[in-house]
Amino acid sequence: MLWTQDYVSRGDFVENKNILEVKNLRTSFFTHVGEVKAIRGVGFHLKEGEAIGIVGESGSGKSVTSMSIMKLIQDPGKIVDGEIIFKEKDLVEFTQKEMQKIRGNEIAMIFQDPMTSLNPVFTIGNQIIEVIRKHKKMSKKEARKKAIEMLTLVGIPSPDKRVDQYPHEFSGGMRQRAMIAMALSCEPSLLIADEPTTALDVTIQAQILELMKNLKNEINTSIILITHDLGVVADVCSRIIVMYGGLIMEEATSEEIFYNPKHPYTKGLLKSIPKIDLGESQRLIPIEGTPPDLLNPPKGCPFAARCSDSMRICKEKQPPYFYTNEEHRAMCWLLHEDAPKTDTKAKGGIAIG
To answer: For helices 124-135 and 172-184, what crossing angle results, to 10°?
Structure first.
């Protein structure tokens, strides 16, 4: 049975062990041509020691969501509305000075390209030591020892020597490991990884993802893994959030997303993933069309213009969340009990209700 209650108000979704709750988050960029509504009412939760994935095309709102959580949105961007509850405190109300105590200490972030995040004129060790001493009361000697321990933890060989080397002396995969070591050096409760494997080859990607999975299991760090590739999150995350047009289109366990997806957009993403058993005569099926213009977002479902199953109501009214179970929700009119079960294409302009 399907029901359509508001996500935040559902008591069975909110547990004492939630480390993070994002509620009705709205983030916009006020440009000279108008307001770009990048995030349009996003809400989700993260439990202690849990890893969730946020996936979607470029421009869907994944990175803006993570930057909003870190309060790194700069002019002309602004968090317009919503709450970001971290350990029972609303980060939206925090000043930048208060956030400096949170960033790198309780919440850490790994960015897509480590070469733009690591300072080329300082050694890897100095950069990790600086982070540790900023947040922890340690001598330089103690911090150096901790830095070597962290490099060991992330699998960098000869860490006692590598600690004194510069970023250009590391390979791409090792730089990313160094970034993870830096991010984990103050033992944060929450780690946000924004496209951490995009610039790496497939072998190194697998190693980094395995490393993140082991770190979650060993030190109980909560992880938000942001990527455009559904295949990346399959083995690391217990839940997956699918974003599009600044909204969450679908959220469910990883198993449900891969084997029982409900939203046409999620199904489209899955069809575009290369598969080992794909025959030579079979082609990947791309999602035709382009993402919506968030300067003037559609009033209905943002995916309606690209959806082969679109109905008239899809373009006229934004759907609520329909729940197929307590952990699986999708923003799609096709899940309405009155939606047609066959031939849902909008050839005849079907309306619901």
So the answer is: 20
Tens of each residue's pLDDT in the chain, 353 residues: 344 444 443 444 444 489 999 999 999 999 999 999 999 999 999 999 999 999 999 899 999 999 999 999 999 999 999 999 999 999 999 999 999 999 989 999 988 777 778 999 999 999 999 999 999 989 999 999 999 999 998 889 999 999 999 999 998 889 988 998 999 898 899 999 998 877 677 887 888 888 888 878 888 889 999 988 887 888 889 999 999 999 999 999 999 999 999 999 999 999 887 766 666 666 777 888 999 999 999 999 999 999 999 999 999 999 999 999 999 999 999 999 866 654 444 333 444 54
CA 232 to chain centre: 12
Cα(173)–Cα(302) distance, integer angstroms: 36
Q: How far apart are the first and last CA of the chain?
A: 18
Phi-psi group of 335: left, alpha or beta (phi > 0 → left; psi -120 to 50 → alpha; rest → beta): alpha
Q: What is the DSSP string of 43-80?
A: EEEEETT-EEEEE-STTSSHHHHHHHHTT---TTEEEE
Task: Say if CB 64 and CB 29 are below 8 A apart.
Answer: no
Q: Is 343 left (phi over 0), alpha (psi -120 to 50) or beta?
A: left
- CA–CA separation, 132 vs 109, rounded Å? 15
List beta partners, residue 128: none
CA dihedral 99, 24, 226, 296 (to 10 degrees): -110
Cα–Cα distance, 248 to 64 (Å, whole number): 13
